[in-house]
Amino acid sequence: MRAQVLGSVVLAVAVFGSALGVVYVKHQSRKLFVELEGLQAARDQMNVEWGQLQLEQSTLVTHGNIERIARTRLGMELPENNKVVIVGP
């Protein structure tokens, strides 16, 4: 009789411990899922920003834009035809 009571107590403690484990794992799972959602939202925002930066870069490296910057900021001008030397192979 005493062995049955002891066995029942052990089983009750095991069931209770198992239940606590399930609750803890479920909580951790939800916490990690929320973190994952936040990281995915940040990734999506960074992808949008990356696309915008690529578009901006493609407009900045056009021939006309580079020539305009060379003329206005650097004071560069095309040389006169008589000052151009063509070097052959």
Structural write-up:
The chain has 89 residues and is an all-alpha fold. The chain has one domain. 78% of the residues lie in helices and 0% in strands. The chain contains two helices and no strands. It has helices spanning 2-60, 63-72. The chain is rod-shaped, with a radius of gyration of 36 Å. The termini are far apart. The mean pLDDT is 93.
Radius of gyration: 36 Å
- Uncertain runs: none
Which word captures the global form?
Answer: rod-shaped
Could you say how many structural domains there are in total? 1
| Class by alpha and beta content | mainly alpha
Mean pLDDT: 93
Total number of helices? 2
Strand content: under 5%
Features:
single chain, 89 residues, 2 helices, rod-shaped
